[in-house]
């Protein structure tokens, strides 16, 4: 049988699963790793782009160039068609993403030892909240990117359904399952019947009772932690004149993974220099401008993310800001983190309630909750997911590979013949 694959192009990390015959495998997409950060670094000299950890390492080593992360977040916006300067030339963000998918395709083909042209692409339940037209455009754009990368047959599957198919391999009896896939950019949910009597069916449509989700994930939590803990040290809240604070956008963009690279665009730099003159050398905003000059925004974002992860097991964590000013740091506390992210976590809870309502299922009827995605490990998020399901067992899947493997399972079912 020919080899087919499933690609989980994630906001924070990406994976590829392949299927040939009855065998499934996760592809080592960077060295021996089966995950690759969704990061793209374009060297200033026009050399080929570096992806994943290699790109991040080049950026951390201060090699001249431009790092971009979390670009999945722009698929549903007009920004994906805009051009930006990288490596001495102008490329659209679509072209940049084609390069990343080519990278994943080559890794899969090298591992399989043959050409692969059929793929099931994972997608969130909603690329864009409350905008069906934009959501449809995002899927069409991702399909176009996959075609340009060399795939011929391209299908899509909701990411939580893919995770459910992977979970089903482990089941010895039928279950009514609530699947929660909480990743970097989205929180996605499915209510689905799984188990031995269901998986033999070729058409699983009637087993899927509901899909739901919201565009809130780990990167949103990073943004809120950064705005609350870090950005006040860089000028957030400083007054330009009596009754007028600095505008919010410079701090929101610096705290948002997929917006960081836009700060150094000429139109934004002009505005920032004007602000700098208005605040007359305020030391906090001078720190901000230092970050802009040194292009260290991604380093700060990574330190914020590391603190968020530490707060999953501890009550406090230090955010190192040496790249801003020698010896500068700020302490983040779990209670403060949970306070500043309460709105986002509340929206996750509302989406869970909505998904159950669509399914017409009461929480007590759910027999298993299956968790996947890196953000599902954050205590306050996990609590929000599990709270309604008092009678269900909670099962943790592979946080980073469940979806990729499930997409490969789906690819065998739908494309291998």
Low-confidence stretches: none
CATH domain topology of the largest domain: Nucleotidyltransferase, domain 5
Q: What is the total domain count?
A: 3
Helix/strand-derived category reads alpha+beta
Number of strands: 20
Mean pLDDT: 95
Cα end-to-end separation: 8 Å
What's the total helix number?
14
Write the layout of secondary structure elements.
Layout lengths: L3 E5 L4 E8 L2 E4 L9 E2 L1 E5 L6 E2 H9 L4 E5 L13 E4 L2 E4 H20 L5 E6 L8 H17 L4 E6 H10 L6 E8 L4 E8 L1 H4 L8 E7 L3 H13 L8 E3 L2 E2 L3 H6 L11 H13 L4 H12 L2 H14 L5 E5 L8 E5 H7 L1 H18 L8 E5 L6 H8 L6 E4 L5 H14 L2
Parallel strand pairs: 1-10, 10-11, 12-19, 19-20
Antiparallel strand pairs: 1-2, 2-3, 2-4, 5-6, 5-7, 8-9, 12-13, 13-14, 15-16, 17-18
Helix pairs in contact: 2-3, 4-14, 6-10, 12-13
What does this protein look like?
This protein is an alpha+beta fold and 417 residues long. It has three domains: 4-159 and 404-415, 2-Layer Sandwich (Nucleotidyltransferase, domain 5), CATH 3.30.420.40; 173-218 and 343-397, 2-Layer Sandwich (Nucleotidyltransferase, domain 5); 219-340, no CATH class. It contains 14 helices and 20 strands. The strands form six sheets. Strands 1, 2, 3, 4, 10 and 11 form a six-stranded mixed sheet that branches. A five-stranded mixed sheet has the order 14-13-12-19-20, with helices on both faces. Strand 8 (83-86) and strand 9 (89-92) form a beta hairpin. The longest helix has 20 residues, at 93-112. It starts with a strand and ends with a helix. The model has no long low-confidence stretch (mean pLDDT 95).
């Amino acid at each position: 049988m020919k080899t087919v694959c499933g690609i989980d192009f994630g906001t924070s990390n990406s994976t590829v699963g392949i299927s040939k015959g009855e065998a499934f495998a996760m592809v080592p997409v960077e060295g021996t790793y089966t995950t690759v950060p969704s990061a793209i670094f374009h060297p200033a000299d026009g050399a080929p782009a570096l992806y994943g950890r290699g790109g991040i390492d080049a950026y951390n080593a201060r090699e001249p160039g431009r790092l971009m992360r979390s670009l999945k977040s722009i698929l549903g916006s007009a920004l994906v068609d805009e051009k930006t300067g990288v490596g001495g030339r102008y490329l659209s963000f679509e072209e940049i993403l084609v390069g990343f998918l080519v990278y994943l395709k080559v890794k899969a083909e090298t591992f399989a030892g043959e050409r692969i042209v059929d793929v099931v692409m994972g997608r969130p339940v909603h690329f864009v909240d409350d905008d069906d037209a934009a959501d449809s455009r995002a899927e069409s754009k991702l399909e176009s990117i996959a075609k340009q990368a060399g795939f011929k047959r391209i299908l899509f599957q909701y990411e939580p359904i893919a995770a459910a198919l992977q979970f089903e391999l482990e089941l010895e009896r039928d279950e009514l399952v609530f699947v929660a896939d909480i990743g970097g950019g989205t929180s996605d949910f499915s209510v689905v019947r799984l188990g031995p009597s269901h998986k033999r069916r070729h058409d699983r449509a009637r087993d899927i009772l509901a899909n739901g989700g919201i565009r809130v994930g780990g990167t949103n939590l990073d943004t809120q932690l950064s705005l609350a803990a870090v950005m006040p040290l860089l000028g957030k809240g400083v007054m330009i004149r009596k009754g007028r604070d600095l505008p919010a956008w410079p701090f929101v963009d610096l705290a948002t993974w997929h917006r960081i690279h836009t700060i150094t665009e000429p139109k934004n730099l002009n505005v920032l220099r004007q602000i700098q003159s208005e605040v007359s050398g305020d030391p906090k905003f001078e720190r901000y401008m230092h970050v802009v000059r040194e292009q260290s925004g991604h380093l700060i974002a990574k330190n914020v993310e590391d603190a968020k992860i530490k707060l999953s097991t501890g009550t406090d964590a230090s955010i190192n800001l040496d790249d801003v000013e020698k010896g500068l740091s700020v302490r983040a506390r779990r209670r403060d983190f949970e306070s500043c992210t309460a709105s986002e976590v509340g929206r996750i809870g509302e989406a869970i309630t909505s998904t159950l309502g669509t399914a017409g299922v009461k929480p007590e009827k759910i027999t298993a909750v299956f968790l996947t995605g890196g953000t599902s490990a954050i205590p306050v998020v996990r609590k929000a997911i599990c709270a309604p399901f008092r009678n269900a067992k909670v099962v943790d899947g592979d946080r980073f590979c469940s979806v990729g493997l499930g997409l490969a399972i789906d690819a065998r079912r739908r494309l291998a013949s």
